Amino acid sequence: LDRARLLIKCPDQPGIVAAVSTFLQNFGANILESSQYSEDPVGGTFFIRMEFACPGLTDKKAEIESEFAKIGARFNMKYEFRYVSSLKKTAIFVSKEPHCLRELLWEWQNGDLMMDISCIISNYEDSRELAESLGIPFYYIPANKEIRNEVEQKQLKILEEHNIELIILARYMQILTPNFVSHYPKQIINIHHSFLPAFIGARPYERAFARGVKLIGATSHYVTNDLDEGPIIEQGVERVNHRDQVQELKKIGKNIERSVLARAVKWHLQDRVIVTGNKTIVFD
Amino acid sequence: LDRARLLIKCPDQPGIVAAVSTFLQNFGANILESSQYSEDPVGGTFFIRMEFACPGLTDKKAEIESEFAKIGARFNMKYEFRYVSSLKKTAIFVSKEPHCLRELLWEWQNGDLMMDISCIISNYEDSRELAESLGIPFYYIPANKEIRNEVEQKQLKILEEHNIELIILARYMQILTPNFVSHYPKQIINIHHSFLPAFIGARPYERAFARGVKLIGATSHYVTNDLDEGPIIEQGVERVNHRDQVQELKKIGKNIERSVLARAVKWHLQDRVIVTGNKTIVFD
Amino acid sequence: LDRARLLIKCPDQPGIVAAVSTFLQNFGANILESSQYSEDPVGGTFFIRMEFACPGLTDKKAEIESEFAKIGARFNMKYEFRYVSSLKKTAIFVSKEPHCLRELLWEWQNGDLMMDISCIISNYEDSRELAESLGIPFYYIPANKEIRNEVEQKQLKILEEHNIELIILARYMQILTPNFVSHYPKQIINIHHSFLPAFIGARPYERAFARGVKLIGATSHYVTNDLDEGPIIEQGVERVNHRDQVQELKKIGKNIERSVLARAVKWHLQDRVIVTGNKTIVFD
Amino acid sequence: LDRARLLIKCPDQPGIVAAVSTFLQNFGANILESSQYSEDPVGGTFFIRMEFACPGLTDKKAEIESEFAKIGARFNMKYEFRYVSSLKKTAIFVSKEPHCLRELLWEWQNGDLMMDISCIISNYEDSRELAESLGIPFYYIPANKEIRNEVEQKQLKILEEHNIELIILARYMQILTPNFVSHYPKQIINIHHSFLPAFIGARPYERAFARGVKLIGATSHYVTNDLDEGPIIEQGVERVNHRDQVQELKKIGKNIERSVLARAVKWHLQDRVIVTGNKTIVFD
Description:
Four copies of one chain form a homotetramer.
Chain A lengths: L2 E9 L4 H11 L3 E9 L6 E9 L3 H18 L3 E6 L4 E7 L4 H11 L5 E8 L5 H6 L4 E3 L7 H14 L4 E4 L8 H6 L4 E5 L11 H8 L3 E8 L9 E8 L6 H24 L3 E4 L2 E4 L2
Parallel strand pairs in A: 5-6, 5-8, 6-7, 8-9
Antiparallel strand pairs in A: 1-3, 1-4, 2-3, 9-10, 10-11, 12-13
Helix pairs in contact in A: 3-8, 7-8
């Protein structure tokens, strides 16, 4: 409960680590984990993630943040303090296929995904029972291309009511509009059922079968307005062979999808993912 | 030396296996390995690969082949007998990067790639010493887009002199013309440095880096006139992360390339790869 | 429904495939899949698995089996016909950890594990709700070393009432006695939480941590009287590193265990696994 | 050339990172990479590896080291400065199988293994030509159990003459005595041809075959006096199946061995491996 993460992005120069770690020490914090990455030591951007424990953190929070502003200014930092005790309010979107939703709920019940699942939204009724058996509000909002704007208005209203900070598209098979995406930049995680950038768009398993690939995969990425082009968080693949018809590819694919998405979400929740340009830094 | 492989492709119907295995038995052959695949038991195409040992095969060859023609006709088969004792005459093409060539030569020296390496052709002198140290004829033919036709004429002449049956492009960085490819259908194996169909074309590692993928790969395929679109034989991938710059991707990629190519070549030499449409069946 | 599998084991000699395939053809059967393996073409044991479709199979069954006896005798075969329509009656044993049970039930609901789950037996009450929600009889039988014999008597009685043909130990943490095992030879599948033969016995994750391995794994095998020494069906591993404490190893391990067990069970149900000596042939 | 690595091990307490990073900053150093690990933030041991660039390092070296002694004393540190410009003097031991030696030499020629290969020592003459073609002194010292002490005396003499800092056993098939090992603690890297702790000792592929495992592996570890029980640096595995006889296991195994050993050596040369107890921390 007394743990926090400090995420920093700034121009690289000598003295950053010294300044930050001295600052934290002066508040009695112990650095538990520290990961850094420099795009280029000369003139590049520097990224650091520090996880620290600090006795009495709740009381010191305000002071720490206001004091740190000086260091932030000195090094021209973009930074953020994130508190482990404050779980991210999350909405999960799902269509008909429940395997990714199930995996997330299962890991969440086990305590492996530290989030506050505020609601599940679906264009099918199929997952209602599962959601409600766990006490999670379930919203059924039928959707299709023609009514996209109305659908998104309803969804956005629900998301705002719940103060949602993270949206997980757990095989939600509707395209989101730029308007919707603009409300949640770098806050929407999707699972695409191919090893991107191969098979962008619809029906990737059918196309993988037609191409005769020997590996199929899945990709979890942040959603941007370019379909399947957002920053990649995690990918996975499995071997297939000529005997595997589209049905088998889908079965094998489901196992890849659920584990790739679960890993991506876990890293996001632990504030291990930093987006830079159209790429991610993952401090795993 | 008394071993052979029988490769068959025909419309599926009951009785094929019975007819073929009875035929081989009547010649005293013992079936060592048999792999079959049917695209669809009703009206689909049926494929079978049988490897058999037959005492006195050399003397019986002609009779076996002429007798089998009847079965072939009955079932409307395309088929081929391939004799293990007859090594495929092979040419290896290479440009500057020697890692794939080295791997092939190394496996060949170990007896793991049963082929007759008739020559090595390169648009650089770099691999001459290696080739000649193993007693393999080396041909240096400078190449570039402008002189493509003359270059290919020289190459084709050499290939014909050596009666080449298989061409391995072991990181040969020149595009082949349709005319060249038409001389060696399903007989040219390439290694492409990406997990196709991602990053078709030039500079795949640079583009993989720009896209921020978390896996890089390599693909071995038969060459057709559609660049990087030929039937895939084998693929492999390795994990990478945000720290890996283009240079590191290339290093990691080299290890994938050499092992993927070596596996594809091994399967081809063992007559385990059957091309159907733009896909391969690999009876491994 | 008209599909069956024929499994054969006999001394290798020419003519087996011809005889069997001619026999099946005469009954109008179409061979859908055929896999064979010879330990040694000269004097070794030969194994073959044929899956075939035969219109009107139910009516022809008795005649096929009685006629095949002649071929069986001629080649000194051990053989078995298994009918796809006849699902194996299965009991799943589980202790406290539900992840393997959940995975099996989930794949079974999806139609990916074709079995008749007759009952779930546990020494904990935890899985009752899950079992009963799916209409599967659940038996709670507390167990410990001291009362092993009484416990097994109760279990055997239930298994006999249900005519069980397959027992899956889905993280059942009690050792079975030789008496129990002798009732179900090659019919009990266990998942052991290490890459055997490393870490045989109790607390493998603790020992893996202590040894500092960089890979952890799981092994699914048939149960014999030698603890963790039975024929291995399938294994899987994942990378770990120095940061992973025992708790993390267990979490990572759960994902390996559930997928390794599910694959092993699927292959067993499809009659793809043949035990020979203390090893398995898996015709996957 | 102005790069160095600082490796520290000390009791965990707040302020370490601040002190060290401030120290380095005061000398004008820029921290390029920093990795840390704490066994337990309360009372555990803390490890950190910092790689830094420092203009004029050669001239400042002495002062940096003498000044740092104060910080070392304050935090009760064991620490070491290692300079990237100072390549480790390395001896490679090999017996008959050359695949690991070849891989190391190949990566070394490519500039991927930054070491000074001072000599190659073998109990066979086979690798002499390869060694000498690269200008590396080759010592042929026949060896067997009976003459172990004399052999090791000769080897130690050569190692001392060359001021060897690292010994790589690249499939050197002789057991080293405690006396020999005591001269090079944590400085001898071996490749064992199994996924340890499975198949400790001789003939692991034969035993893997007999056990019927579905994965084979290799393990690179530091050599201690307990055979195959030293701290593990890296492991790898590949799938095998029932068709793979001992010969095939060995072939597949060679590819695992060479890549596992090359990774372990690379990490050691980059000072990324820290031994703690009988385990390693690998800051990769």
